[in-house]
Write a structure and sequence with these properties.
alpha/beta; seven-stranded mixed sheet; 10 helices; 19% strand
């Protein structure tokens, strides 16, 4: 069946066998662990996932793709849903490990990442393909141009590692940008503060990243200005741990 990709769904299907093999080799899961693939499309990677793992689920919104998957990969468990509306605790393996795999649509990469981080207690790890520029933000060091909200939250809530780049020619249709595959391992200690406070502090700081933190953080600090922090610096100068520490103090 010839399949016309939908621009509105950000569909760029992986067609490069070599990249598919590299992704499969990088998944740290055991044979019986649950694999949840986000947006499998017509199953270029999925058909290999079901050979390597016993318990593969897929989240797909496109009915045409689901039709192909049901026919070609009958052993696959499919959840027809918008990935941003999934209630993750319902589809994880309650008795074992769960890993998320996905070639993320560029236009909703950040919301998907934030949803996975928010639900991190449900997962052991994730192998995700995304625009290279976004992947670089996840692993960016403080004081670099790429360092921002995504960097702080990802590094506090997981251990991110950039695995390899993927050329536009590996997809049909080819996107206009380079992609990268990144691994998130959900092995970080619990935060000393709530996710909500951390997000509020980090977003407020980076919303005016050119200002000194003494100014940009006013909306969250009010009159309560904890000692021991250099508020003369700018948002990108603080490491993720400093944001966690300040957030914890603001809660107590």
């Amino acid at each position: 069946m010839s399949f016309k990709t939908k621009k509105s769904l950000g569909q760029h299907f992986l067609t490069d066998g070599n990249i598919i093999r590299k992704i499969l080799a990088s998944i740290p899961a055991g044979k019986n662990d649950r694999i949840i693939e986000i947006g499998p499309g017509t199953g270029a990677l999925t058909k290999w996932l079901v050979q390597q793992f016993e318990d593969v689920h897929a989240i797909e919104i496109d009915e045409r793709a689901i039709e192909v998957l049901e026919k070609e990969i009958p052993e696959l468990t499919i959840h027809q849903s918008d990935v941003l509306k999934i209630h993750w605790p319902d589809i994880i393996n309650p008795d074992g490990k769960t890993y998320v795999i996905g070639n993320l649509p560029y236009y909703i990469t950040s919301p998907i990442l934030f949803a996975l981080l928010e639900n991190r207690s449900n997962f052991d790890g994730a192998i995700l393909m995304m625009q290279k520029e976004v992947a670089q933000r996840l692993v960016a060091e403080p004081s670099s141009k790429e360092y921002g909200i995504l960097s702080v939250q990802t590094q506090l809530m997981s251990s991110p590692e950039l695995l390899f780049d993927v050329s536009p020619n590996s997809f049909s249709p080819p996107p206009k940008v380079m992609s990268s595959v990144i691994q998130l391992t959900f092995n970080r200690p619990s935060l000393p503060c709530s996710d909500k406070t951390l997000k509020s502090v980090v977003r407020t700081a980076f919303n005016q990243r050119r200002k000194k933190l003494s100014n940009s953080l006013k909306p969250v600090l009010g009159d309560k200005i904890p000692d021991g922090f250099n508020y003369d610096q700018r948002a990108e100068d603080w490491s993720p741990d400093i944001y966690a520490e300040l957030s914890a103090l603001l809660e107590h």
